[in-house]
Design a protein that fits this description.
Radius of gyration of chain A: 12 Å
Largest interface: A-B, 12 and 4 residues
Helix content of chain B: over 70%
Mean pLDDT of chain B: 79
Keywords (chain B): Membrane, Transmembrane, Transmembrane helix
Strand order of the largest sheet of chain B: 1-2
CATH class of chain A: Mainly Alpha
InterPro entries (chain B): DUF2975
Number of helices of chain A: 6
Pfam families (chain B): DUF2975
Distance between the termini of chain B: 23 Å
Number of domains of chain B: 1
Structural class of chain B: mainly alpha
InterPro entries (chain A): Cro/C1-type_HTH (IPR001387), Lambda_DNA-bd_dom_sf (IPR010982)
Low-confidence stretches of chain A: none
CATH architecture of chain A: Orthogonal Bundle
Helix content of chain A: 55-70%
Structural class of chain A: mainly alpha
Order of helices and strands of chain B: HEEHHHH
Protein name (chain B): DUF2975 domain-containing protein
Oligomer: heterodimer
Shape of chain B: elongated
Largest sheet of chain B: 2 strands, antiparallel
Amino acid sequence: MAIIIQLDVMLAKRKMKLMELAELVNVTPQNLSVLKSGRAKAIRFSTLDAICAALKCNPGDILLHQTEQQKDE
Amino acid sequence: MEKIAKVSLLIRLLIVLVACLNIFVITVAIITQSDANSSELSVGTSQSHISQVVNLPKSSESFSKELNAEGFNSYAIMLIPEFLFCLFIYWSLIKLFGLYQQGAIFTVIHINQLRNIGTCLLVWSVFDLLYPILLMLFLRISGLSESLPLFLSISSDQLLKLLIGLIIFVMSWIMTEGQKLQQEQELTI
């Protein structure tokens, strides 16, 4: 998929564990793991809002768009 | 969900009961075959009795008369293949409602069961049409009978089976789309 999830990068920057984030955003660790691994098909605005609030970042810090060309490089 | 589980259990028990009754009635009908095309089986006293009428498929009635005239057991010949289809459908329904009982509504196995039932009904309707011809050809080729006439008939039963089979098949297709939607919903965080 062209959208890359950089949740692990942000978690590392904030020195936060997935379980802690799951508790803060009120999402199950399993679902966050699905999001982190890039298997998720969509993300709700409410979830994105909660993640951004917990990690003190912007949606652009978590979601990255990558074109096919960039992917090949 | 609890309601679905309860109703599914009830339906499963009902299907098992109907299947057992069907097996019993057909077995008795085959063993005690009469000259008529339908046999009535009565159980109980003269004041209260349970009766179950065994009818041959409408499309095969005249063919079964011919078989009877030739000295064959038309019930055994005509009902056993029909009953095998029925058994398969009963078995699929029991499995289907078992899945409902476990709470699996939009799963691949459940959709496959539904598709199996639809396919079985479609095959059954075609089988109904071809079985008398194939059977008669077999009897002629094997030399068991030479006077049986060629027989082909289409009845409302066959068309109904075909229609129901098609509807169930389309429903399973729609369910597949539903399953995709559910999967997508599950992957929406």
